Amino acid sequence: MNRNEFSEILRKSSRVVVKVGTSSLTYSTGKLNLTRMEKLVRDLSDVLNQDREVLLVSSGAVGAGMGKLGLDRRPRTIPEKQAAAAIGQGILMHIYEKFFAEYSQTVAQVLLTPADLFDRHRYLNARTALETLFKLGVIPIVNENDTVATQGLKFGDNDTLSAMVAGLIDAEVLIILSDIDGLYSANPRVDPNAELISLVEEITSEIEMSAGGTGSNMAQGGMVTKIQAARIAASSGAYMLVVNSQEPQVIRRILDGESLGTLFLPSSKKLDARQRWIAYGSPVQGRVLIDGGAVDALLKRGKSLLPSGVVGVEGNFEAGCVVGVYTPDGREIARGISNYSSGAVDKIKGRRTTEILEVLGYKDFDEIIHRNNLTLI
Questions:
Q1: Are strands 173-178 and 332-337 parallel, antiparallel or unpaired?
Q2: Cβ atoms of 168 and 160 closer than 8 Å
Q3: Superfamily grouping for domain 283-376
Q4: Over the stretch 63-99, which tens digit does the pLDDT of each residue have?
Q5: Extents of the domains making up the chain
Q6: CATH node for 3-274
Q7: How far is CA 194 from CA 210, 213, 302, in A?
Q8: Pair 339, 307: CB distance under 8 Å
Q9: Which of 10, 174, 201, 300 is 20 to 30 A from 251 in CA distance terms?
């Protein structure tokens, strides 16, 4: 498949999410690079003038707070980061508002936490608020609410946040601005023979290996998080690009169909909002390990997960929690809402459904996870 085949799709896209990371907005000191911010705003304003809707996911609040506090190193503890973010978020928005106003554009600050997307009611409220901003011709500038988010309940990085938001608003394109040209066949910082991969049709194990894998130099806030973002974006039917933020007018050029960076194609099977919520929008509380027969039943026949196919359970979770479903070789193939707690699953694993009542003393469901509450990933 040729990358040029998708140029027309990008040119016709009307709703775009752009994510810019800390490395693209700050100096090596961690403080804001105003020259880069101004160029970004000019590029986005030019895209807006093409009658497109744009949402910006922006890092940089902590860096702005560092400058105000006179810190010469990035905060290391959560309270320090929260304090810097609380001070910096207003500064960051003030700078964006000033730059965008020069091009007669109006912006709005939207701060999100995972709870806003895990809870169905809050998810719909967030969607409605963003849709209203688009109707009013306003540019939403989204960031994680670092002041109140805790380590145990965070998106973890704005790559994930941007992909979740792209699905939330049904964006056609997600552009991730990075400090690297795109996805390479190996880590270009250590391998001079690494080659840029222009097009990714499907995220395979080979693609994941190219990203460096967990624990590599690029894993933290690097290409690994962008692969996860690509999975989320693909499941919502969005095209995702990873491009170098230093390319002149890179956003406009991408949307004009120029072949820059790495393009990730959307999945052939788009997940609906509920399926995306199960797969990516809710915290995974544990693992259910299944045998080969159950793998075939889920992947090939679209069946529910029955106790007889379960060989193990990990973690502590209650009925109604989202859990990961893993194959005998440790590969996650699905996520779903468990009908039983981890303790109950452990007791009935390997049993027939007719034995559930005898083992537990009650029987609420035949299935551990019903197929309507299961999403393959």
A1: unpaired
A2: no
A3: PUA domain (2.30.130.10)
A4: 889 888 888 788 888 888 888 889 999 999 999 999 9
A5: 3-274, 283-376
A6: 3.40.1160.10
A7: 9, 15, 40
A8: no
A9: 201
